[in-house]
Queue: 2 jobs
Job 1
Amino acid sequence: MAPTEIPPPLPGKKRRIGVMTSGGDAPGMNGAVRAVVRMSIAQNCEAYVILEGYEGLVQGGDMIKEMGWEDVRGFLSEGGTLIGTARCKSFMERPGRLAAAKNMVLKGIDALIICGGDGSLTGADKFRGEWPGLVAELVEKGELTAEQVEPFKHLNIVGLVGSIDNDLSMTDATIGCYSSLGRICESVDYIDATAFSHQRAFVIEVMGRHCGWLALMAGVSTGADFVFIPENPPSDDWEKEMCHIIKQHRDMGKRKTIVIVAEGAIDRNLNKITPSMVKDLLTNQLGLDTRITTLGHVQRGGTACAYDRMLSTLQGAEAVKAVLEATPETPSPVICMIENKIVRRPLLEAVKQTHEVAEAIGAKDFDRAMSLRDAEFAEYYQAYNITTSSDQPKLRLPENQRIRVGIIHVGAPAGGMNAATRAAVAYCLARGHTPVAIHNGFPGLQRHHDEGAIKEISWLDAESWASKGGSEIGTNRGLPSTDLETTAMCFAKYNIQALFLVGGFEAFTAVSELRKAREHYNSFKIPMVILPATVSNNVPGTEYSIGSDTCLNSLIQYCDACRQSASASRRRVFIIETQGGASGYIASIAGLSIGALAVYTPEEGINIKMLDRDIDHLRETFARDKGQGRAGKIILRNEKASKTYTTEIIANMIREEAKGRFEARVGVPGHFQQGTTPSPMDRVRATRFGVKSLQHIEQFIGKSKDEIAADPMSAAVIGIKGAKVLFSPMEQVESKETDWKDRRPKDEFWMDLKSIINTLSGRPQAPKGEGA
Ligand code: ADP
């Protein structure tokens, strides 16, 4: 990002940008502060933090503090907010805001980036609206002179949403919500194990007063039996409905019961539904040994997950850009995320829409409350309902529209594969289709005479797969082309009428082979969808593969541990080798999430000048380090970044050049990167995309084989592209979007993020003309 030419408000002085965290704390807020501070400095501005939220603004003085580059070192891996947050009563009143305006002018700050919830953002916009009046009043009262306020005619406000509830409209995710969801899922997974052992029922209360995002997503990720959310209360006879569903699950052989209740859960008459009401029902009506667990503040704490670190970093950088591009006429923006795209939305409208949800709930207009949440929310709600209940007569298709759907895993295991399969199975059963597992990939199918290679999956088989890592039906890298003849014969023999593939680049290749082989084999003229699942995130047709988020979380955990291990000895740099094949995605995003000093990717390669610059940079960084950055430094190198400069060689070069002033260590996390339990993001997206994939397949029911083969959408990849989730025809993706040699997409969206990674780590760039 080139520095933007904006004149500073004070002649001869740099522009000053303030940043604060306000309202409830959320994991990731520190990442936002770090990004704002460093990006401001990189843009030739001065960065200030306001301590303790609006309280610091009202009090002024030392509560408004300039921050240097080094002051935010290590912020990414710290939980909570290091600059403090508070609820400030005096800012709610005009005199408080008058004091705040005076302090800002005195400090020379005319732009404020606020990371907080809807309350904090409302306050910020009010402050901006009143600003000219506040400044005039300060002059009138003689507290400031006309000359002093002259350069501060306008106040720039940019909002960043930091909230664990994910309650702001117009954004899919708020900073902190996925970390909080991670904590909830971890707890539910633990509880799940004990519930299973004792055949118990647990009622778990999670945060969310007007917003059921955490409760719903926890339900989707853990396969909970019932979920209560404020936006969509259950039917009037919910007691009967819940008991019926849970009894059914128990009758089918389920040993445990999990019910998730959002803090703000209500019935359709706005009466509160409490965990103890649910417990009494389960105990008295169903005779279950039931316990209540209230997760409480555990949900707020801890370090941020990889996604929140990335989100807060990218949004912090975008906020600075928004400040620099703002004019007095621009409405205050809030930085949002739609699927995979960072966008700016009018702050006031986002806040207004958020308040409307609460109003709609208050007016019992629940359809409206649901419609005011983003489209993603409604889809998750639908996916949850379909995948949780085994008996849904309303969804069942007529007999002649039911099909046999083959489900196959291809390639290495990735987090979320089982969740996707569970969703597909549940969807099939709800609709009356027959889900058939093809065990151990294409080689499994080709060895069809093995007993059990192809098996129908029951609801109970798949029921516990929501949170399981690995591949329950077995996965294999083998391709159909090894034996097309037998593969085709098996498709016909087992009457596979549609195929749902979950896997990475091999799965993608498999669909391509099957599609091309349709010419010779009629049994391949069936609808096929691939759901990309690989830690490498290198499948063309999507910007996100399930499993990649789990991998990033493992990787940052590994990096955090390495870095911390150096805190006693100091002056240590770790060269960590990541997976990813020929795609530098994992290395780059992990680099962004931990603040790596440098990231080496296959796309860019490694050359001697680059190493030279990076070693110089290391030397300078260690020389500057006066003890504030007690932990080690990290360089990430993708496994295929260079044939010559291996991880060990780079470490040796650094050792040689360091001349004893610092040391280098190598770390190879290897298969650790595949993670254990899949991350909630991988689980929920797997579920949502699994259901969507089956819905896509259903469009071809009743069509002839030739009609299917003639339709490019009959072999498709489901994925996220920018702000959309969509199906792309295989024919187009394989011919136009795929770099077959390097097994990755031709255009990798994250390449645009490289400059932000480098800017925020202060990495020196190649002089113009030298290339990377
Ligand atoms: P959150 O930002 O998490 O929604 P709050 O609603 O508690 O949290 O708001 C945090 C702080 O923002 C409040 O303590 C107050 O200082 C300020 N604030 C909230 N709403 C307003 C408002 N309408 N006008 C002025 N300031 C507000």
Note: The first strand starts at residue 16 and ends at 21.
Job 2
Amino acid sequence: MPTLFEKIIAREIPADIVYEDDLCLAFNDIGPQAPVHILLIPKKPIPRVAAAESEDQALLGHLLLKVGEVAESAGIKESGFRVVINNGENGGETVPHMHIHLLGGRPLQWPPG
Ligand code: 5GP
């Protein structure tokens, strides 16, 4: 059963896509928690970051390298932003397809709730 994010990758569900390459996709979160809230996901359906395997090492590096590029395109690179990966129930993960949240456009509180 494909996840919601696999359906977005397949264009079966619409999304406001801001970046795409062979390995990953970035799109605006449907429920933004900040003026800029982008989800960056691997096209490979890794359920969560803790489920990644050694064969995913280059893919994980690719995703982190893309963070700065996507942030720059969204205009939040200079002002600063936060990168969040929720993992599992206590981590607040609701979609079982690994995703990196990019949050910015306002000062963010720390520690998170
Ligand atoms: P999680 O809570 O799993 O870390 O993050 C899942 C995120 O996916 C949430 O921030 C939620 O707002 C977002 N989301 C859920 N459904 C959709 C959707 O259909 N489209 C988009 N663009 N984002 C979604």
Note: The chain has a mean pLDDT of 98.
